[in-house]
Design goal:
By secondary structure, the protein is of the alpha/beta class. 42% of the residues lie in helices and 20% in strands. It is built from eleven helices and eleven strands. Strands 3, 4, 5, 6, 9, 10 and 11 form a seven-stranded mixed β-sheet that branches. It has a two-stranded antiparallel sheet with strand order 1-2.
Length: 290
Amino acid sequence: MSPVWRNLPSLSSLRAFDAVARHGGFTGAGRVLNVTHAAVTQQVRGLERELGVALVRRAGRTVILTETGQRLAQMLNEGFGTIAAGIEELRRSEERRPLRVSTTTFIAEAWIMPRLPEFWARCPGIEVALSPSHAVVDFARDGFDLAVRSLSDGWAADPTADILPLARTPILVVCAPSLLADGQTDPEKLPWILEADAPWDEDRLRTAGINPEVLHRIKLGSRHLEMSAARRGLGCMLAAEIICRDDLAAGRLVALPVPDLPSITYAAVIPKGPRRPAVEQFVGWLRTIF
């Protein structure tokens, strides 16, 4: 049966009486509740007036519960105990719940996933569920704890989220060394891995003086395969430097000298409101790896 709250005494007065019953007096209860013993006394006296019964009797420097007071103390002990157990179970279930992170395919594959063992060594027990996608997420609808995105994705003006910058990185034109084997380095004369659903890439090419309309495109049908295709020499592609940094260092990719390409800022995007400790820990770790 649901409680009729308007018929119940205030929670503060019940808590004050519970503390008195547990600690044998107003002074001890005041120390536990971090208030004066006079404030505790006032709360208990108010509770007695509201209930119309005596709950405590003074006995020197301590107090003794009346028979009615003992019954109420037992009820509160059981009730507050049930609440405490429920809250603890809620916290444990939240701690066990995987951290749901939305991010782009490239940043997940090239930067976050290879370094996840570092996070687990730092924060053991936190399960991380990465969801690679280029779609902008709705936190309330989709249930993600955070997203890792570039600010150019339209997040900067989002009033429902906090944006925490992680790294500023330039956009590069990259390809496999084998694609340049015949000495051809003119971007407009090389094949391109450029999906039709990426108008921002076409805008970036135009900014750099490259006409996307004249490019020979390799159609893969999935952005998930673009980096793999570039490594195999199928074509050029646009990529953030941080995403292809390891490939450039290993010689699997090379960067073409294309000027005037923009830079982007990767950021952790977190919905406003209360945050799980795991979110703070994961974002703190992200700031160390970017």
